[in-house]
Amino acid sequence: MKKRVYICFVFLAVVMGGCSYSSTEKEDPIVLTISAASSLQDVLKAISEEFQKKHTNIEIQYNFGASGSLAKQIEQGAPVDLFFSASSEKFNDLISKELIQESATFISNQLVLITAEDGELQLEKIEDLISDEVHKVSIGSPSIVPAGTYAKQSLDQLNLWPKIESKIVYAKDVRQVLTYVETGNVAAGFVYKTDAIVSENVKIITTVDEESHDLITYPVGILKNTGSLSEAKQFYDFLQSAEVKEIWIKYGFTYIQ
Q1: Within this chain, do residues 100 and 221 fall inside the same structural domain, yes or no?
Q2: Residues 176, 141 within the same domain
Q3: pLDDT tens across 140-154, in order?
Q4: Are strands 111-116 and 188-192 parallel, antiparallel or unpaired?
Q5: What does pTM read for this prediction?
Q6: Is 105 helix (H, G, I), strand (E, B) or coil?
């Protein structure tokens, strides 16, 4: 009899111990996939760090690249929860195809001309790019990189494109332009102001006249096929919150909402 009681006691202890473990075991976090323009890398990483301090059950996973390439991936069915574009045109294409369910635009940027910080080349204005001393100039590929589109618009407006087209080195995204300039592979390049100020290896020659190109804004939206709508909405709202506004400004963006 005593043996039976002992066995029952051990059995109950094991069961209760298992139940106790299960109740304290952490659930797997919800993973949000954010496709975002390359120029947003630094600021979004800073924002997600703040977000995850308050939402420990949500993990943010980024896919950075050229807005055009990211939009194409989404059209082809890539599993994305939110899309942050540097091009209203690319973004609006997804809206017209009913792939975005909610969107907002609240930050803008500026286009600048840069050279290497320790370079010997002396430039003062965009028109100086026609000089024989300037052998190569980099811009993002206009078909997929919004910064490249804006740069070409400005060069066209200034009637400089035909004069420097042979010098152009195309890049897959704006961060590659930055790298080309930092490493001296090109004499100058067009990037966003926010990219230039995070690099100690480049200097800004001039800010491109905003009247010479389309307005640079960053629409963000929640995808219709998100599998984590509640969590996506939490991050979407956090991006626009008052506490995050200062982070956008710190990284050089203009808050327009």
Answers
A1: yes
A2: yes
A3: 999 999 999 999 999
A4: antiparallel
A5: 0.83
A6: strand
